[in-house]
User: What shape does this take?
Amino acid sequence: MITGLGGPPRGPEFVSAGLSHDTPPVHGESATVPPTRTSRRWPLLAAAGLAIAGISAGTGGAAGYLAGRPTTATAPPPGTDGDLMAAAARTIPGVVSVRARTGGGSGFVFDDRGHVITNNHVVSGAGGTVGVVGSDGRRLTAEVVGTDPATDIAVLRISPGATLPPLRLAEPGTTRVGEPVLAVGSPLGLSGTVTAGIVSALDRQVRLGATTRQRAVQTDASINPGNSGGPLVNARGEVVGVNTAIATLEGGGSIGIGFAVPIDEARRVAAGIIGRG
Assistant: This one.
């Protein structure tokens, strides 16, 4: 089953896109029926709640922003493919822990203006501000710029003077099945945690709750409560997705099936939120 990661906040349940609620999952997709339910759903654990890739919002006015401010991938230096230690070293300084009244999660710096991407379910109901903690232990206050529940993406803003480095974003179409990736975040409040895996599948069609089918990056990198909103990065330290949910057997815990919002969708949605101000 698939459930949101950990305690509140929780997101909608995940349902495999090709299955009806009463049809057993295909071979290899484990499912357990919760005692209080009669339909076969996979409880989905969100990295601090739950999420999904999806339809971009607010694309009007975003094109100009995409052409300028957000940090995008540049040609990686030679010899860095496969160097996960170097990728971790480049990524950790730009990752933050997000502390909200309703729960916690992770996020990463999106641009040089202090914008941070996280999950909507991490900050939902938190009000206009949340706390963030940098990898160096600094505690900062972040403004919630806007959220997009359809894609479970939210944007925060910290002071550009905080000097947290923005992460590089992978170019669309460059992520490959089988390439090594790292999930970086604060599972169970353990900031700066790095776990390794591979890209298990691209364009995985999933449905969360009553939403339409959405594209997701599937990975076997360990994702747990508190990872929600953190980056999934490749061996060059480029963000390929926003960690959002995992499949789990009844009783919880990662079983090596995690999902991330593809970075091209997350970037488009974030740019729209920022464009609206």
Summary: Residues 1-43, 47-81 have pLDDT under 50 and may be disordered. The chain has one domain: 1-277.
